[in-house]
User: Which sequence fits this backbone?
């Protein structure tokens, strides 16, 4: 197996899933977001999003907090430190796979 | 809901643009500018005594709003926006030095994926600063020149950011600036015309956006709760 294929095999499978990757991409750019925002921003259905959030929370990449803003109940999602590190690591690995020349130039 | 945010923006930029989706920032700041701008006219027309106490109070309100806008607007958004289209952490003000001149020529978007807004630096302060320029350029055409210049500045500084103003929108502001020259305002109140016009423009924009937002996003359709498996 060549190096690039090896790199692909080693990608974090929790993150390397379209819906979860989309969720983490959104959360990586903001401090936190609620369930409704994630659902609309990602175009997910309620059940689909719930399932993937549960998976990410189980992996320790996000923290889910139920709270209130005013009188409105909210489910707020936030990347954990572990989630940020893993996501950044994943992004770097993907750049290395897709644009190895770019990564080589940076080194 | 129809997505009113540009799909070309990054997630962070969309989050920043989302801060304006309900029109509340423009509506609230516009209202404060309008009130400040109206005071001298009210004093002149109603032959009241000194406007200073009211002006100072309104300026304090503006200062409080400028410093705590996230918290104040967040209170309104918790009741209007978040139940309808969700919550995302409010955008931060930029910490990097402003690149005002390069953004006029640079074809690429100037800021990164961060959830950042330039609204206070580039819209609020632009309108507020225009009001101060009156002292430097006295004369009958000063208010109109300042308003037209403010319109141009608003367009140029924001056109590649998270909340750009369309050409027709700033053209309306510029046109209003030209029209005010021929309206019979008291001389002592002319200094406040840039603030009144800019504030009115911002307020109307905000109100228009809010009405459209509420019509497009009735509360009953919102559904955003985690489903337990």
Assistant:
């Amino acid at each position: 197996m060549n190096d690039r294929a090896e790199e692909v095999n080693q990608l974090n499978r929790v993150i390397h899933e379209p819906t979860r990757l989309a969720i983490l991409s959104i959360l990586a750019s903001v401090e936190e977001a609620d369930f409704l925002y994630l659902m609309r921003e990602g175009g997910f259905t309620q059940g689909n999003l719930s399932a993937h959030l549960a998976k990410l929370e189980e992996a320790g990449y996000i923290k889910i907090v139920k709270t209130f803003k005013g009188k409105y109940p909210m489910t707020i999602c936030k990347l954990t430190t572990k989630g940020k590190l893993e996501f950044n690591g994943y992004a770097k690995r993907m750049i290395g796979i897709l644009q190895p020349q770019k990564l080589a130039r940076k080194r | 809901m129809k997505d009113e945010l540009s799909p070309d923006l990054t997630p962070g930029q969309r989050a920043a643009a989302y801060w304006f989706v309900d029109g509340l920032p423009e509506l609230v700041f516009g209202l404060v500018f309008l009130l400040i701008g109206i005071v001298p006219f009210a004093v002149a027309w109603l032959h009241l005594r000194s406007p200073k106490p009211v002006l100072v109070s309104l300026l304090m309100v503006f200062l409080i709003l400028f410093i705590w806008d996230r918290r104040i607007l967040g209170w309104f958004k918790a009741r209007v926006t978040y139940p309808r289209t969700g919550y995302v952490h409010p955008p931060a003000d930029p910490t990097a030095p402003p690149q005002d001149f390069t953004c006029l020529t640079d074809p690429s978007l100037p800021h990164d994926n961060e959830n950042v807004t330039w609204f206070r630096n580039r819209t609020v302060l632009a309108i507020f600063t225009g009001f101060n320029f009156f002292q430097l350029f006295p004369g009958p055409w000063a208010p109109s020149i300042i308003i037209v210049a403010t319109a141009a500045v608003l367009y140029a500084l924001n056109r590649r950011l998270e909340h750009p103003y369309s050409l027709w929108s700033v053209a309306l502001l510029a046109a209003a600036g030209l029209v005010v020259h021929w309206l019979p305002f008291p001389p002592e109140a002319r200094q406040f015309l840039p603030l009144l016009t800019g504030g009115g423009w911002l307020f109307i924009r905000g109100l228009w956006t809010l009405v459209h937002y509420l019509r497009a996003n009735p509360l009953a359709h919102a559904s955003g709760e985690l489903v337990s498996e």
Observations:
- The two ends of chain B are 27 Å apart (CA to CA).
- DSSP finds ten helices and no strands in chain B.
- Residues 101-111 of chain B have pLDDT under 50 and may be disordered.
- The longest helix of chain B spans residues 193-216.
